[in-house]
Give the backbone structure.
Amino acid sequence: MLDLPTLTYAFLGGLLPALVWLYFWLKEDARCPEPKHLIFLAFVAGMIAVPLVIPFQKFALAHYGEISLMTIFAWAAVEELMKYGVVAVAILWRKAVNEPIDAMIYMVTAALGFAALENTLFLLSPIADGNLIDSFITGNLRFLGSTLLHLFASAIVGFAMAISFYKHKRLMPLYTSIGLILAIALHTIFNLLIISSKGYNTLNAFFFVWVGVVVILILFEVARVIRFKNRPKNKGRNC
């Protein structure tokens, strides 16, 4: 039964782990932190993306059938496109996005907002059934698995925008498109490992996303190098 305590516990179970990851990744931009209200806006925008993708995912399921390759690909594609779309609409046009790493920060923040609400929805059923053990296992698996997947995929898109930050503006859509293609491919591979193998490749999927965490850390460092190499000499450490 979906009463208020169930909704509260599920929401906290989805939100708190996402906030832990958000705190960790915001440290990557400690030198020149983004405005808190924009971080909040990006997080909420990521949450808003969840109900927006559901109709498209239901259409793909009805059109291509359950657990088909095209369904898995379509689900991945609509999630990555929607996460980017809400950030583009809410954040990327603002003056606060003034250095390469900013695109990564906002994409990662939106990814965590998306994961927070998505994880909440996954926790509703076991909590409503009173199965606390299943709730705990589900929450931890998603904390270590799907949440990191959303981080990895969105960071790729953000990095694609970062490396085009100082290039001609007409090149930004090209780089962003490449980032989205890579993100969708990574997301699809993860889903295939989890779904099509019926759990046999779960460890491989988790290894995949933890390698992704290392890759994200490297990409943040590269984005910082891009900023350092292209900053005007007379601006010192200004943002």
Remarks:
- The two ends are 50 Å apart (CA to CA).
- Residues 4-235 form one domain.
- Residues 36-64 form the longest helix (29 residues).
